[in-house]
Structure formats: structure tokens, C-alpha cells
Write a structure and sequence with these properties.
The protein is 48% helix and 14% strand. The longest helix is centred in the last third of the chain and has 19 residues. The protein starts with a helix and ends with a strand. A hairpin with a 4-residue loop joins β2 and β3. The protein has a single domain, classed as Diaminopimelate Epimerase, Chain A, domain 1, CATH 3.10.310. The chain is of the alpha/beta class and 152 residues long. α2 runs parallel beside α6 and α5 runs antiparallel to α6.
């Protein structure tokens, strides 16, 4: 099957627009950055390893405040990972915060409410970013694109 056809059907347009709007809303209150990456299959046994690879390949570690977060989802494999750069990982409370955000996303994904789960997760992560990295006009407002990145 041609890969563009599959990418097109990972999420309907309404769901894509809702997710991008959630990213824009969350980022309006913080200097932090949130990206969403979706693909059908995870190339690794551990989705966190895949999330770290994608994080690096998208140049997300180059944000000024080192406060970018990626939400990685392998839809067909039913796997996901949340990965935050060094500063947001530490300031948000370490593993306990990330486990809570992951548990909430898991609940939505189990019900196949992908867009709702991702939007809710973006809100949760955005709140943490706004708390620890409030909007700062000295930092370029949008260091990374807001659109969803679709893999294979």
C-alpha cells in the first residue's frame, strides 16, 4: 500500500485539527514545545527508545530552554511513549508525573479515543510546561512546528 494513503487515514481531518489546536492552546501559555508523532508500527521493542530517536531526529533537543516534549504513538501496535527534554523532565517531578500522564492517555487509547486522549495529554503536559516554563517573550514563540508528524 502506498504510504501516503495510510498516513492520510491514521486520523481524520477533524481529529488532526483538534490535536493541532490543543498544541497551539497549550503552547500559548509556555515557552515549551509539544510535538505529536504517529505511525502504525514501532520499529523498536521499547516505544520510549523510538520516541527518543524521533525526538533527536526532529531536532527537539535544540529548544532554547530544553523544554520540549514528544507524544509518540504507534497506532497498530497499540504502543506509546512520552518523552521530555532534560529540563522539563526534572522540573515536572520526574517519573511520577510522566507515569500519571501516561496512565491518563492509556485509558483513552484503550477505548480507541485517540484524539481525545492525545488532546487530554497535551493539556496535562501543557499545564506542567506553563507551571515550570511560563510564556517568555524573550524566547522565540514557536521554536518547533505544531502539526502532527506521521511516520510509516
Amino acid at each position: 500500500m502506498f504510504s501516503l494513503f495510510r498516513k492520510k487515514h491514521m486520523l481524520d481531518k477533524d481529529s488532526q485539527h483538534r490535536i493541532v489546536a490543543s498544541i497551539k492552546e497549550a503552547e500559548s501559555k509556555t515557552s515549551g514545545e509539544i510535538r505529536v508523532f504517529m505511525e502504525h508500527h514501532c520499529e523498536y521493542v521499547d516505544p520510549l527508545d523510538r520516541a527518543q530517536e524521533i525526538f533527536a531526529s526532529l531536532g527537539m533537543e535544540q529548544t532554547q530552554a530544553r523544554n520540549a516534549i514528544i507524544i509518540y504513538i504507534a497506532l497498530t501496535d497499540r504502543q506509546f511513549a512520552l518523552f521530555g527534554d532534560k529540563m522539563i523532565y526534572e522540573k515536572a517531578g520526574g517519573a511520577a508525573f510522566w507515569q500519571k500522564a501516561a496512565a491518563q492517555l492509556t485509558g483513552h487509547l484503550r477505548k480507541n479515543h485517540v484524539a481525545d486522549g492525545v488532546c487530554n495529554c497535551i493539556h496535562e503536559l501543557g499545564t506542567a510546561l506553563a507551571t515550570h516554563f511560563p510564556y517568555d517573550p524573550a524566547i522565540k514563540k514557536n521554536e518547533l512546528p505544531d502539526e502532527i508528524v506521521f511516520g510509516k
